[in-house]
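Before our next group meeting I need something from you. Please put the record directly below this note.
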Amino acid sequence: MNILTAPPAPLPSHTVLIFLLQLALLLGVARLFGWLAERCGMPAVAGELLTGVLLGPSLLGHLMPRYAAWLMPGGPGQIGLLDAIGQLGVLLLVAVTGSHVDLRAVRRRRSTAAYISVFGLVVPLGLGIAAGFLLPRAVVGTASDRGVFVLFLGVAMCVSAIPVIAKTLTDMRLLHRDVGQLTLAAGMVDDAVGWFLLSLVSAAATVGVTLGGTLVSVLSLLGFSIVVMVAGGPVVRGVLRISSRSPEPGTTIAVSVLLVLLGAVAAHGLKLEPVFGAFIVGILIGTARARDLARLAPLRTVVLSVFAPLFLATAGLRMDLTALRDPAVAIAAVVILAVAVLGKFAGAYAGARLSRLGNWEALAIGAGMNARGVIEVIVATTGLRLGILNTATYTIVILVAVMTSLMAPPLLRLTTARIEQSEQERARRAHQDRISAVAPMPVDA
């Protein structure tokens, strides 16, 4: 039969039923746990991240395996539906966050952001490689040699997670603070370099690394960033200005989502992470006129209240904490978690202090950069698929993602409370409130 005339087969009725039930359960539990976290003085992201852990094999799958297998089947088709929703959610989340980045402030402090990103990469990368040589062979994947494993572990230790950092800073009303802006800028660089290093290690585990392939990857990363930031700004602002002439306010929202998706497509086509492209486009959207940005307030509300909780809830569904019952795995988990936390904190703190930031500012940036979130989940999934990690090591890396993301909010609250707000930060907060159509933030936020 001609593939052009054959209609695609519809999803099976049972698949649709399970998918809708999964969405309802994940969103309901994530919102509930987010509310409970806020009642306990934590941002909603803390509770939302725990949702997948509790509904996945770590708890529900362990206590009620037959019900968990029916509700959360492991087939690629069913999981793929949730992954698709999560991918859309993360693209929109990082774009919304990017629209709040103050480019003028970042340019003024670009040397500071550079110091933070470089040290925040190099220190945990080196410690992760060193730790990889000390771990027992039992945690190394069957299809990987020790050299590839230690390089992969180093990459896993040095990545940050713009999506979770973004959600945490949003929940805590810290996007307007200088430390929030610097954390996002440095995190963006770390993520971009982290994905580049991941591609090199993945190549080493399969076909090997070539000089030509490495040069193409570097040029793609630099070329995409320069072209989009230089030529993309006028295009994005012009398109949004034209869309704002429509009497239907939803036109600007649709056009903005389209731009974000196209940015993600362009990045992915260059073998970069789609999240990186979406974040860059989000930054460009943030340079539009305030009245154009005000039209995006409904999109921001839906993303932060629906898509972001769903995305965060799915992050822990593949994690199985029962693997930690093995003493060797438990010890390895403690070592890797300590290396991840100390490495990222020490690197970001050193970079911030070398750029003459204060002690509390440096600690706040270290706390924000330490959150690994779903980026670590993607890294771990890649390692498991390539045979670099086994199930136990995969669970350890996912545990690092969840634990570091949960550590960030209380540490940020502790440190930012000791940093006095400047007039520029207050003005930036007022501007963000106007374009987001939200209630003004408390003065002591």
